[in-house]
Amino acid sequence: MVKAVVGANWGDEGKGKITDMLAKEADIIVRFQGGANAGHTIVNNYGKFALHTLPSGCFYGHTTSIIGNGVALNIPVLFKEIQDIVAKGVPMPKILVSDRAQMVMPYHVLFDQYEEERLGGKSFGSTKSGIAPFYSDKYAKIGFQVSELFDEELLKEKVVRVCETKNVTLEHLYHKPLLNPDELLETLHQYKEMVEPYVCDVSTYLWNAIKEGKEILLEGQLGTLKDPDHGIYPMVTSSSTLAAYGAIGAGIPPYEIKKIITVCKAYSSAVGAGAFVSEIFGDEADELRRRGGDGGEFGATTGRPRRMGWFDCVASKYGCRLQGATDVAFTVLDVLGYLDEIPVCVGYEIDGEVTTEFPTTAKLEKAKPVLKTLPGWKCDIRGIKNYEDLPENCRKYVEFIEEQIGFPITMVSNGPGRDDIIYR
Ligand code: GDP
């Protein structure tokens, strides 16, 4: 069976933890989109890890970790990540890389930096990992597929051709040093050596695995609200964050995705610019940020402080709907135990009218949160294993949100560890 683990919000919902947990019963974990721009934080018996490219199931001996064709593959970053986890005592994971995955090139990272510099105050708050230039090139059909590393003639010719166009922009728009095709070719030869042992025809591999009844997890990065089509465009990421894209980014039939586990955090956080209706500021935000996640809400890749807010029923209902949630995993609930009362955003007021439907960006910018305040439970709920053992106000919080979003919360996460989970 194929299951997807995806985010309902702006990312950082705790997908890594849920994937790591579900990977215990899985054979294969596939990353199907995104790149090394966002990270998953995982706490397990080997320690605490921030993964950027490796799937979150790579800590188990029995799983195969796959980089799907939809991923922006940064080969040196992938190899550094493998070295880092192995150095911390994790057995060498079984890794397969799609021959159709495209590679983040050193110039993608540079173009990302140069463009942010050029935009100055109007920048997108990119993590400067080269993701937007990478996907632009993929769709402009000047990207480099892993399979192309193995065709020297093609590679030589293409490197020259691509450098020509890149150098025009470098010279005239950014006024930066030009690319040297020979150096680039040499870099690609190194990438070839690094990646060769792992290259695989992933869609055939997965087709056979599905036929054999293997358990497969598709691991999403970021969340619905960062999807380029359905998110807060243009403050979005450059590849689809939706479970539906899992079929494309892994190369499997869409009808094989039977469960869509949509991870939804018990409060809101976001990185980068863009409308964030339930955002809070000042001391209130600082305290939630400090207590949030596991050791504070700071970016796994960049260390940037995350923007904080109350739970947003409008955004999360939309987020779950666009994912096609079959199950909601409601995470980081334990963090809210310090609050006397917990505000929840139940509607958006836009031009004097209240709506519960998530609008397009220009309207979203005008939205003001309609808040409802629920009583807190004022205790530590970590370690609790049964839903009935949660304090009454805590259960009421979960049930209120479940009703507002309209999708079943089947899992409640009450701590960062693998076993901190309550099934309903
Ligand atoms: P992802 O990108 O969706 O995987 O999310 P991140 O890894 O960026 O953020 C989730 C953070 O919350 C990580 O530091 C996790 O260890 C932590 N976390 C996940 N679930 C829980 C939970 O239920 N309680 C607490 N306290 N922390 C959690």
Automatic annotation (TrEMBL):
CDD domains: AdSS (cd03108). It holds the Pfam family Adenylsucc_synt. IMP binds at D12, E13, G14, K15, N37, A38, G39, H40, T127, K141, T237, R304. Gene3D superfamilies: Adenylosuccinate Synthetase, subunit A, domain 1, Adenylosuccinate Synthetase, subunit A, domain 2, Adenylosuccinate Synthetase, subunit A, domain 3. It catalyses: IMP + L-aspartate + GTP = N(6)-(1,2-dicarboxyethyl)-AMP + GDP + phosphate + 2 H(+). Plays an important role in the de novo pathway of purine nucleotide biosynthesis. Catalyzes the first committed step in the biosynthesis of AMP from IMP. Homodimer. This is Adenylosuccinate synthetase. The gene is purA.
